Fold these 2 entries.
Entry 1:
Amino acid sequence: MSESSPAKTMHFIREIIAEDRRSGKYDGKVVTRFPPEPNGYLHIGHAKAICLDFGMAMENGATCHLRMDDTNPVKEDIEYTQAIQEDVRWLGFDWGEHFFYASDYFDTMYELACTLIRDGNAYVCALTAEQWKEYRGTPTEPGRESPCRNRPPEESLALFERMRKGEIPDGELVLRAKIDMASPNLHMRDPVLYRILHAAHPHTGDKWCIYPMYDFAHPIEDAIEQVTHSLCTLEFEVHRPLYDWVIAACKIFPSRQIEFARLSLTYTVMSKRKLLELVQGRYVNGWDDPRMPTLSGMRRRGIPPAAIREFCERIGVTKYDSLTDVALLEHCVRDELNHSAQRVMAVLEPLRLVIENPEDLPAAVFGPVNPENPEAGEREIPFEAELFIERGDFEEVPPPKYFRLSPGASVRLRYAGFFTCTRFDKEADGRVSAVYGRFTPMTEKVKVKATIHWVPATAAKPVEVRLYDRLFSVPEPDGDKEVDFKTYLNPDSLKTVTAMAESSLLEALPGDVFQFERLGYFAADPDSMPGAPVFNRTVTLKDSWKVS
Ligand code: ATP
Ligand code: MG
């Protein structure tokens, strides 16, 4: 990570773990886990959780488990399971031997459910979905007890067994915990522990037709793996009493659930449901579209994993939901790429520049491969009497404070010398087609206020460049529940151009990231063919992050 990395700051989870180690709780051991549901690709919000779960383990010389929380068979898929592993590894974390499926614990969960029934802590309930709502009560009124609540344990056990055997249709019976229908916490009002779902599971196949609910399954998963600190996002805070109830009633390993604020980013939607909608509706080109906030999209865009880790460290860990400016992420990306990316010149919108004194020209000029890293050496760039410059670097009638080219004006041509514009050509439609002028070598002094980039007209090669912008045009695309977030899709989030670039770019391999001087960072896309690279704009050079 870059030298500007702040020292790791203290936060409440670091403090809790440090205190537990000091006091010898869990015999001083630390085990964490990252438990994604394999129903979508991981996004930058998950990266926050991953950096925290794996980070806390690594800092404490401990292990972090990667667990597929696959208790819901319907939305889950093997494709996601594989992508999740690839993304966590890419982010820089290693679970070693500790890869698990929650569904591998279904037998234990079933056994524990039977124990709860025997102990009078759970019962099979026949209320319909309609009745269920009615009996549940509201936050201000207590609920009512189900007529099934005092069913003898043997009867519940027999029914539960029939549920398991597939003798009961979906939705007809559920297993409920017997807790407190008058609890102010709705999650404690005899919550459902198991439901019937006649659906094949990607991992366990047809073995089960009853599936445990998250609140019952999660503490058991954590207990089986002896997770000490079970970190999750704030919305689970109200579920914690139930998490603790399951531990006490099942007499299992007492993991501690600790909640932290989820990451929300400006100009971004983060929920997997919405991201799936963008993919299925073809608003983007797949989960790994470079505009997606998914880790696979960010990888394809050229964002280095170190920048994401740095970002996650900088945003910190709190108990309060807030909105993080995406400019901070972009800042971390620039910071990282500034150190690692090779420099090249490329012109996105070429305009011909003709030097009218070709006798004074150097055959080639030299530029640093990376000014941040002198050891990387220099590159040679052929120089010619005809160049391409950026169309925007010439103005027929320069506006105030415009210091680049215009008739009579001089600029520095990066690494080469000076150029003074004497005249230009125009098409019938008024479009400028070429600018002409005189070249002055670097050894002479010409006063200029701007440096522009260029490429040699014949030695430069065409490359496809995909100019990505933010996917949404407003800071909070899902801020208004009344408006479909897709209304705010940015129609200009992708523009494709053919740029002219230094010929070395033709050798770029997918994943290589370059700084196109003055323009930004660009990553070679997997769509690249040998000799025909395609580049994604990772980020522009202009940093809008305000250091506070
Ligand atoms: P989504 O809300 O996007 O559908 P999820 O919470 O359903 O995500 P899971 O696969 O269940 O996704 O998440 C795995 C872990 O990642 C959980 O511990 C969850 O709390 C955490 N996580 C998910 N989204 C965020 C986020 N935006 N910020 C921080 N952690 C998150
Ligand atoms: Mg979830």
Note: The chain has three domains: 12-260, 272-342+463-540, 346-453.
Entry 2:
Amino acid sequence: MTKIHLHRGDLPSSLDLGPVIAVDTETMGLHPMRDKLCVVQLSAGDGVAHIVQLERTYHCPNLKALLADPDRLKIFHFARFDIVMMNRWLIVDCAPIFCTKIASKLARTYTDRHGLKDVTRELVGTDMNKAQQSSDWGAEDLTPAQLQYAASDVLHLHKIRDALMVMLDREKRTELAQACFDFLPVRAELDLQGWDQSDIFSHGA
Ligand code: MN
């Protein structure tokens, strides 16, 4: 059974999650201007998940300081969505970032299966239960199933990153991946300013 700590409103100021932290978010939906950020999950990679249930005021100085701390690497799977949401609702620029989905796309060119469930199955050997993905994350009291699901999304990201770093190095794409991670804040800003559906690098519209 996973060890889960639920924090209401903010992380405790005494908590030190170390230099590399897995992060995920749960929201009311997929539209950043419409759908509120509800939950931020974090793990130091030690099998323990810290789940912050945000209040609608988004007064969470400890969490915001950690997300913006230049000395703490934040690992996400599909960071683009999470940093758009955190930018929009927490007014925080999250950095530095490692995105396991980008790393997977650059390293695992033998497949088009880059969802967290598929990547976790192949690189960690664990099957994830995604049943609670679409549930009411704005509820006052999250269910045990929701907490377990939210936790599971951050528990394997350190191992996944380790495996993908080996593959990126082997394929000589470590620097390319880093350049993509460094571009993520710009990608998020494009999403927020209305270019979310278009690729400004493409020849077409
Ligand atoms: Mn999630």
Note: DSSP finds seven helices and six strands in the chain.
